[in-house]
Amino acid sequence: MTPAQWIALLALFFVTSVVGVVTGSNSLITVPVMFQFGLDPRVAIATNMFGLTFMSIGGTLPFIGKNAIDRRRLPPLVALTLVGSTLGALLVLVIPARSLPLIVSLSMLSVALFSTLRRGTGERSTAPSARDVALAYVLTFALGIYGGFFSGGYVTMLTAVYVAFLGMTFIEAVSITKAINIFSSLVATLVFMWRGLVDYKLGLALALVMFVGAFVGGRIALRMNNRVIKKIFIATVVALALKILLYDFLWKSTLD
């Protein structure tokens, strides 16, 4: 890449890391840009995952300082995520990702619709039923597989699951998903490192800007109320879902 491309890429990763603390879905923007800059698809996914590990750490630190993370639920959710993400990272090596844009966009639009129609969702904590907790655990495992495979939209959908089925507020869901994503990204990164897919020169630069960006984003998120975070979350989800559906899937399919 040229120096100008390096600067543009680092700036993009910083901005998406700041915003992505609340919205997630960084990889839906950053990975396609890496493709455009000529990186091999698997190297782009692996290097992006390397950076996401540090972004998740940076995004988690502000929430730890404010005791915003539900530490009681964290261990089982992390365990399910570790197993799922390992399986997902291994799938990158054998499965093409052509059908993923449609799956992700439809899932994200469903997330936005659910969050909009259920008044008060994510604005105050509620006690979940045993059935909802079990479903949240199943979805955590399933999304862990997807998170290890690609990660684009993973944290966004995980946040929505915890708001919908664990009765969390948006700030509670955002904080715990940041902590969980440390483990999801790390286990996938270790698999990619084992297979020699990580571009360390680029990855270390991205890791630095993503760590700082996420730390700043976490500090900003803690100053917002849940209603504001909900509006930002829904608006971003809809915009990204339509971008994936209309551009990445439908328009590009007509060119193939």
Question: How do the helices and strands line up, and which of them pair or pack?
Answer:
Layout: H1 3-23, H2 27-36, H3 41-65, H4 74-92, H5 100-117, H6 130-149, H7 154-165, H8 170-194, H9 200-222, H10 226-255
Helix pairs in contact: 1-2, 1-9, 2-3, 3-8, 3-9, 4-6, 4-8, 5-7, 5-10, 6-7, 6-8, 7-8
Description:
The protein has about 260 residues and is an all-alpha fold. It has one domain. About 80% of the residues lie in helices and about 0% in strands. It has ten helices and no strands. α4 (about 75-90) packs parallel to α6. The longest helix has 30 residues, at about 225-255. The two termini are about 25 Å apart. About 50% of the residues are buried.
